[in-house]
Amino acid sequence: MTDTAKPVDALSPAEAEAELARLAAEIAEHDRRYHGEDAPTISDAAYDALQRRNLAIEQRFPDLVRADSPSRRIGAPVSEKFDKVRHRVPMLSLDNAFDAQEVIDFVGRIRRFLKLDPQAPVAMTAEPKIDGLSLSLRYEDGRLVQAATRGDGAVGENVTANARSVADIPNVLTGDAPQVLEVRGEVYMTHADFLALNARQEAAGKPTYVNPRNTAAGSLRQLDPAVTAARPLKFFAYAWGEVSALPADTQMGMVAALAGYGFPTNPLMRRCESAEALLAHYAAIETERGRLAYDIDGVVYKVDDLALQERLGYVSRSPRWAIAHKFPAEKATTVLTGIDIQVGRTGALTPVARLEPVTVGGVVVTNATLHNAEEIERLGVMIGDTVTVQRAGDVIPQILGVVAERRPADAAPFRFPETCPCELATPVVREETAGGAAGVVRRCSGEFACPFQRIEHLRLFVSRRAFDIEGLGDKQIEFFFRDPDLPVKGPGDIFTLAARDAGNVKKLKDKEGWGSVSAANLFAAIEARRSIPLHRMIYALGIRHVGERTALTLARAYGTWQDFHDAALAVAGGEQTVREEMDALEDIGDAVIESLARYFGEPHNRKLVEELAEQVTVLDQEKPAGDSPVAGKTVVFTGALEQMSRDEAKAMAEKLGAKVAGSVSARTDLVVAGPGAGSKLKKAQELGIEVIDEAAWFARVAGT
Q1: Dihedral of CA 308/310/313/318: which sign?
Q2: Separation between Cα atoms, residue 76 and residue 70, nearest integer Å
Q3: Residue 156: left if φ>0, alpha if ψ -120 to 50, beta else—which one?
Q4: Which residues are catalytic?
């Protein structure tokens, strides 16, 4: 369903919850393809439409915001080809604006957060949004010591050797640079260099490349630095990570300092005093867009004053003080030749449109997601139709509608299947909303009996963000799932592979596609993952509505596998006290609790979990980093706050390592109460929880 399907304001809470679940899964897959493989399968416009619909639903139903929401996620896991680098300062993504009003609203939110007058000037910078690959460069004593891609925002790929070969990236800085300086920017390829590279490829009888962005990203992520060195890559610096001493106190000043150290910076960057000035510069850059030597897909606005940036802080995956104003999409037409059905981990059936290849701006597109049966009906598409698709950036895949006058006589309607395409052909069921109405999501009713779902669960289990078992990719999971000698039907089976192989007459090393070395490497990789942090164990179970952030919240709250396990069983058993304690946790609501209850209430699932727990050691959750007096504590803010906004208070507490809860429970450590505090204050007093006012809060965290 696109953002032009059923209007957000017409969704019931149950429909909204189902739609948020679908959007989270779909956007996560697109993130993986774009960031992890440099091979996106939908356009920027289609991706942005999904993100905007997700955000609109979250704003209307804030109590349904998922812990694994796309609005809280950055990038994708790093590739197994490279060593991992943990960013000392996370590399966050930006929220998007798509029209002038959203930019005006962005400036208004900043004023409200900072408690400024509605007409007060807020100086900001505006610069082109380069369509390339984000890169972080670490310098110590003026010398380049490490280069890393953004990855998932927390962990990136070590591409130091490759970065050294990019001419725009200095190996030694000029000027009086800080002792430690992490410079961040974008690696890109100009149009002229891209065309020349493709001409050389064609002359050599080799495949040509699709577009500059993916070519630049793929070039920097080569295993052989010599390949990177042969590619005409360029770099713009525009931000920073860890810095031992800031050389300026404004965004403009910092970028000027980076230029002084030897980095190319964008000459179109400007300082603006109002939303109107930002929009005027956006219009000027959009006019120049076609004449620029490189691809851009919008304009980025940032609060200029670094002290204000610090106060504004972050919302999950994005800074409050910056936003990307995206350019409109491009369109084209092609023929829809067929519709396939894909089955996801939760059994959701997703129709995928197969298209005659169409090129827009040098990008060839062959498929697009149709989301669900209602979207097909809304669009009125039939197999054989000519359809309009749109792009903004690198690729296409959003179908906007049908060119009715070009419908052929033999166009055939698509009938959504009533049984799963798996070999069991189990019935497809349509979820019901809370009011009993039919929902938009259709699922295979086979659950763990359905091979598609079981395989997808196993793929999640071994993925980078879960157990991260090297050598168990999609092909290998499929192989073991169907292998008669070494079947892997559940997660625990993975850890018995080596023992079962030793007892088999037919060894893995003798099977097609394997050998002594590859089999030994796989068994060693599995053995290396017998210990796992609690939050990754919880995420790896594949419980609906329990993404990484939710898993981390649960892990921090319960601390040990045994405590989490007992709490989950108690919720499944209907123990109200445990449910209320869990509900008080930030980001945990009814959807998550019901999912945990269903998961641990199902005997087959419990058997899988117990078999897995016997094979691995689950490490206790580490306490949040930091030595502040509130690190690791659960804090509730209630009543009116006079010196800071509620959002600012929450951001401050989380930065200091505290967990912010929305309600008071026995697990609450501290309540900060302002004037007008009501039921939360009363409950804290009844439970004997420490209560302080806003002044005492500032006194407590002073100096941290």
Answers
A1: positive
A2: 11
A3: beta
A4: 129
Cα separation, 31 vs 74, in Å, equals 8
Domain CATH for 679:
3.40.50.10190
Per DSSP bridges, beta strands 428-432 and 438-444 are: antiparallel
What is d(CA 87, CA 156) in angstroms, rounded to the nearest whole number? Answer: 7
Q: How many domains does the chain have?
A: 5
Q: Are residues 387 and 466 in the same domain?
A: no
Q: Are residues 249 and 143 in the same domain?
A: yes
Strand order in the sheet with 180-188: 143-149, 133-140, 180-188, 234-243
Beta pairing partners, 391: 330
d(CA 622, CA 315): 23
**The domain boundary residue, chosen from 326, 347, 376:** 326
d(CA 142, CA 171): 8
Alpha carbons 131 and 159: distance in angstroms, whole number: 19
Residue 417 located in a structural domain: no
Of 377, 454, 399, 393, the closest CA to residue 422 belongs to: 454
Q: How far apart are CA 246 and CA 586, in angstroms?
A: 34
CA 425/CA 427 separation, integer angstroms: 6
Where the chain has pLDDT below 70, the residues are 1-5, 32-41, 43-45, 67, 71-82, 316, 330, 359-364, 391-396, 431-439, 446-449, 586, 622-627, 703-704
Q: Tell me, yes or no, whether 32 lies in a domain.
A: yes
CATH code at 570? 1.10.150.20
CA torsion sign for 167, 168, 174, 178 is negative
Query: What is the CB neighbour count within 10 angstroms for residue 623?
Result: 12
Instruction: Determine the pLDDT at residue 3.
Output: 39
- In 3-state terms the chain splits into helix, strand, coil percentages (rounded to 5) of 40, 20, 40
List beta partners, residue 326: 298
Looking at residue 150, which CATH number applies to its domain?
3.30.470.30
Same domain, yes or no: 144 and 229: yes
Stated pTM of the model: 0.52
Q: Where among 619, 643, 660 does a domain terminate?
A: 619
* Degrees, nearest 5: CA angle 134-293-97: 55
Q: Are residues 517 and 453 in the same domain?
A: yes
Any domain includes 412: no
Question: Domain range for residue 471?
Answer: 448-529
Tell me whether strands 690-692 and 133-140 are parallel, antiparallel or unpaired: unpaired
Q: Is residue 2 part of a domain?
A: no
